Amino acid sequence: MNGAVKVIRYELRDVLRSRWMLAYALFFLGFCELLFRTQGSGPRVLLSLVNVVLLLVPLVAIVFGTVYLYGSRAFIELLLAQPLSRGRLFAGLYIGLAASLAGAFLVGVGIPFALHGAGEPGVYGTLLVLALCGTLLTFVFTALAFWIATRFEDRLKGFGAAILLWLAFAIVYDGVVLVVAGAFADYPLERAMITLMLLNPVDLARVLMLLRLDVAALMGYTGAAFERFFGSAAGAALALSALLAWWAAPVALGLRAFRRKDF
Amino acid sequence: MIRLEDVHKRYGRLDVLKGIDLEFEAGTVTAVAGPNGSGKSTLLRIVLGLVRPDRGRVYFDGRPLNGDWRYRERVGYMPQVAAFPENLTGAEVLALLKDLRGGPAGVDEELIEAFALGPELGKPVRTLSTGTRQKVSAAAAFLFRPDVLVLDEPTAGLDPSASAALKDKILREKAAGRTFILSSHIMSELEELADRVVFLLDGAVRYAGPALGLAAETGQVNLERAVAQLMRRTAS
Hints:
Chain A is mainly alpha-helical. Chain A contains eleven helices and no strands. In chain A, helix 1 (3-16) packs across helix 5, helix 6 (122-151) packs antiparallel against helix 9 (201-213) and helix 8 (190-198) packs across helix 10 (220-230). The two termini of chain A are 26 Å apart. A six-stranded mixed β-sheet of chain B has the order 6-7-8-3-9-10, with helices on both faces.
């Protein structure tokens, strides 16, 4: 068996037994259950869930990822001293961690929907898009965590960089875009807006979700411009490919840093 | 077995190793000693491939290390501080290592018995004491009958009986032809175990020679002083 697969198996066991992972799954479970009780139907639950997923999934992935990696530093060194290539070790650690996080998210969201049912048939498709977005964001932000934890020797700097990156992507970015849009309201801005959106994985996930939900008003400025420009199908295809590129880039950066690092 | 040629390593503005030439011969125990920050750990990490030298070469059995990982099938490592995934049991950690490198030679579980680790291995690592983790770490290093063992302060944190069991094991395996590179601060331990002592100071080799009689000859109990004494005498 490939060395990466062996590392994944053991990491899954380690991470899935962590209390934080349990808390993460339970949070989504409880939150969805609460939404079902207060909002009633599947579509409204999904709509309320979107913004929480867009904020929380990147935050947990990047913070848990960096904390876990700094905490396992000594064990990673022991694994590096085993007959195993750095590339395989990286693949094993990364996939093991990202898959555990994505699994906890999917279980937490999936169980309430399985219990209550989604309501209308079309809603299952939307739920699937939400699951896909959450999973992709987990993989993107776990890769960023790997890159940060490999680049910064000092763990305080690493945590700082992780939080800043999350703040920038999840919160500050859309605000800045809005200010820019307001300041240049008299100019044709659509292309610039779309370019800005492609540069932020959280925005991309938001657009994917909201194109599906068909609520352009909630899409933020970039999302609205995006739908006007592309229409739903082409827009979704472009956003999804951009999100996949957003996954590949930090993985490549993290792998490169991991291969070159002196441990 | 392992040869270092003009090995240099620098971290930022800090020159950690300034041209190390050393040979670790098969079937011998070499102790690398020196004050904190002298470059001991970096030297061991270079042998393990965790750190790549800026200049110079390392040869393993005559072949230069060039980022290939296969030679590590023949190397066992016991780090200074044993750290394992908190939620796994000792047995699971050993099983992972067996999975990664179980060779045809089978496993050597002598140390697990000598330390009476059996009942401890079923518990999650986070509940184990530092000393017990250290024992698991030692057992893991010997598990695959490696030709070369790199032990970073192996007896630190072990109780006297475990420490004695580990030393006996090192001497037995040396007699069986294995090569040891270990770091230690304890003079009596070096005398007991090491054939050769390499003393590092500020990233350079200040003394490399027989360990036997080092303490008696210099009348010092502390290795640092012993080597200082020795260097003074060589100079005069």
